[in-house]
Specification:
By secondary structure, the protein is an alpha+beta fold. About 50% of the residues lie in helices and about 15% in strands. The structure holds adenosine-5'-diphosphate and magnesium ion.
Length: about 700
């Protein structure tokens, strides 16, 4: 194992391995299953399982697992060993087609939001052959979907695969109308840029808030933070470089196309971006990346923080979801073409996205909603909670010209004839980058920037794929019936622009004036928190779209709403309880100790030198005593707010109490604690400070 190309994908049962270990017929049959979703017969499955097991055992595996993504947002695995007893007392390594295709984990403890009564505790996992099996540690991991016996999706993969399927189906209808008879599938692809923080294990262990909640709940601003912007793209420190090197190697072995890495804006913050791949595989890979980041960090004495907002006053971490759709032949449908006809097709797909984002702003917001991400959105470091689309000046001018039937004065040509020719030729504009837009067109893809760093990318892509499929379905329904295709097409593009142009915004998304304009003049939605947006998952239009496309059943949606809200409530309650405990057990005693030592010292001084004022000590004792009183009062308020949750009738009203009572009480409590930190001698303060933590990695 010397060069990267030698070991890249060495732990993946990929096409190369399949080709070399399977018979020609078995390979062809498996390929059909992977490419076209054809069912696999048990004979073929047995042959594949045998080859997979032999390969895995040769590479050191002893166990296999059906690897799945329950609604917790992380991955789950239950390991079974390959061993099977022989009559002579030895064991043989066995793995059957049946075990490959289907598993039955006792999964009663995964959240199901009422989808699976405990009496039918068993769910089943079903092999997803579109994502390659791989070896992690000593285990062969088989990517699977996870369903209840009633057939309800209990995971994120199942609806993601369904959304990819409907998007493909509807996009193909459009392509046929443009005369494309060859494309067999349309595939959505994603390249997720992953942000994270690295701190030392020593700092992490010393902070109960980081250990219990993944973020600091207290901490005064350090004298130096990110003001100088000297970290962004800066030289990578040796400790971080060693981590990245190891991480890349682990990811490459798993066939994950880790490509770009750099320091981010905040101290201790970094980013990793892979090369994009199909949405399903990108989702699996992103889950694996997050897991491996934490494992590799541990090996280096570090901790990788994936929380969206580990430090107040310091930029949080997000995940940019770069998304596009392409044919199986490789034509990117979001890439402007060279001829007006190609451009007409591009503009129609562009319009489908514009319409989708406007019609389903709420679903996109919901897809990224977590307690952690609520701290970022709208905090002048990430896009606001209001969704809008950035298109860039040129594309914007093209759309305006079409809408108003005026000649388009593009950079080069003006093309104004009837029919499709009305759609002008224009330059690709990839240079104009707007970093403040939640949803930006970047030349041949859209970058959805609202995802939190710990989010599974599945949800965002399910909603995106489904909403765009819905636009395409509506377009195809109309265009297939049109007597004059070109006129109908032109009219439809025009109508989409005038109906949905409110969602297009090319200015500064961080500007307060924009939020006012967006909400007051344009009527765009502004769901600030998870509690605000999540109940709208069940809005009639959302349920109708998602169920009619077959991406979710109504029960599945209800369960997801409940699970997401429960998760929001539980997360915040854990944070509140952690704060309360940190105050009682550590912060208040530390301040008291410091103030009494100060008072004692002042009194010793006064005893020796009665003329001394001891102004410094006296003043500080007074200030800290006042802060201690404030801390006591605010802690009692927070305790009361948490107690008040018991009165909530359901999870929707509980989440409203979290938003309106618990979270504000947490903010109130933090203020006197952080002030006290600044006034207390370092040797008394019970936790490492922001300065200690953020500059801990050498
Ligand atoms: P940025 O300037 O935002 O860092 P990059 O050009 O580095 O942008 O790309 C960011 C991500 O977008 C990468 O993961 C890249 O592979 C991905 N990407 C590029 N083209 C596409 C595409 N057509 N579809 C989906 N993702 C893409
Ligand atoms: Mg980006």
């Amino acid at each position: 194992m010397s060069t990267v190309s030698d070991y890249f994908g060495s732990m993946v049962f990929d096409d190369r391995v399949m080709r070399s270990t399977l018979s020609a017929e078995v390979y062809a049959s498996l390929r059909k299953t992977i490419d076209e979703g054809k069912e696999l017969d048990i004979g073929v499955a047995n042959a594949v399982a045998e080859a997979m097991k032999n390969w895995a055992v040769a590479n050191g595996a002893t166990h296999f697992t059906h690897w799945f993504q329950p609604l917790t947002g992380i991955t789950a695995e239950k390991h079974d060993s390959f061993i099977s007893p022989s009559p002579d007392g030895s064991v043989i390594m066995e793995f059957s087609g049946k075990e490959l295709i289907k598993g039955e984990p006792d999964a009663s403890s995964f959240p199901s939001g009422g989808l699976r009564a405990t009496f039918e505790a068993r769910g089943y996992t079903a092999w997803d052959p579109t994502s390659y099996a791989f070896i992690k540690g000593k285990t062969l991991c088989i990517p699977t979907a996870f369903c209840s016996y009633g057939g309800h999706a209990l995971d994120k993969k199942t609806p993601l695969l369904r959304s990819m399927e409907v998007l493909s189906r509807e996009a193909l209808r459009i392509l046929r109308l443009f005369g494309n008879d060859t494309a067999k599938r349309v595939v959505s692809s994603v390249g997720p840029e992953q942000e994270y923080f690295l701190i030392t294990k020593e700092m992490y262990d010393a902070r109960p808030d980081l250990r219990f909640t993944g973020r600091t709940l207290f901490g005064a601003k350090p004298p130096k933070g990110q003001e100088l912007d000297d970290h962004y793209f800066g030289v990578i420190k040796p400790g971080v470089a060693a981590f990245m090197e190891d991480l890349n190697e682990e990811l490459w072995k798993l066939g994950i196309l880790a490509k770009t890495e750099h320091n981010e804006v905040a101290p201790a913050q970094h980013e990793l971006a892979p090369i994009y791949t199909t949405t399903n595989v990108a989702t699996d890979h992103n889950q694996l990346t997050m897991e491996i980041m934490q494992k590799v960090a541990a090996k280096h004495g570090l901790v990788c923080l994936l929380h969206e907002k580990p430090f107040a006053g310091v930029n949080g971490s997000g995940k940019h979801n770069n998304w596009s759709i392409a044919t199986d032949g490789g034509q990117n449908l979001l890439s402007p073409g060279d001829t007006p006809y190609e451009n007409a097709q591009f503009l129609l797909f562009l319009c489908a996205v514009i319409k989708a984002v406007d019609d389903y702003q709420d679903l996109l917001r919901i897809a990224v909603a977590t307690a952690g991400n609520d701290h970022r959105l709208g905090a002048n470091e990430a896009p606001p909670a209001v969704i809008s689309i950035f298109l860039g000046d040129e594309l914007n001018a093209v759309l305006e010209a079409i809408e108003t039937d005026t000649p388009y004065k593009g950079a080069e040509k003006t093309q104004m004839k009837l029919g499709v020719d009305v759609l002008p030729i224009f330059n690709r504009d990839t240079t104009d980058r707007n970093r403040t837009s939640p949803f930006a067109f970047t030349g041949n893809k859209f970058e959805f920037r609202m995802l939190g760093s710990s989010n599974s990318i599945a949800c965002a892509n399910i909603m995106l794929n489904a909403a765009v499929a819905e636009s395409l379905r509506i377009y195809a329904d109309r265009l297939e019936k049109a007597e004059d295709f070109e006129t109908a097409l032109h009219e439809m593009i025009k109508k989409t622009i005038s109906d949905h142009k409110r969602i297009i915004f090319n200015g500064n998304g961080y500007d307060d004036a924009w939020i006012a304009e967006a909400t007051e003049k344009r009527g765009l939605l502004n769901y600030r928190t998870t509690a605000d947006c999540m109940p709208h998952l069940m809005d009639e239009k959302n349920v109708r779209m998602l169920t009619s496309l077959g991406v979710f059943t109504e029960d599945e949606l209800k369960s997801r709403r409940d699970i997401m809200l429960e998760n929001y409530c539980k997360t915040v309650v854990i944070e509140a309880n952690t704060m309360i405990s940190m105050v009682h057990k550590r912060i208040a005693p530390a301040i008291t100790r410091f103030t009494s030592d100060l008072a004692a010292q002042a009194s010793v001084k006064k005893g020796l030198f009665p003329d001394l004022a001891c102004g410094y000590e006296t003043d500080l004792v007074k200030k800290l005593s006042a802060l201690t009183d404030a801390i006591a009062e605010k802690t009692a308020d927070l305790e009361k707010a948490v107690m008040g949750l018991q009165d909530a009738e359901d999870v929707v009203s509980e989440s409203a109490l979290i938003r309106d009572a618990v979270l504000p009480a947490m903010c109130e409590l933090r203020i006197p604690c952080d002030r006290a930190e600044l006034l207390t001698a370092k040797s008394y303060w019970p936790f490492p400070t922001y300065g200690d933590i953020l500059f801990s990695v050498k």
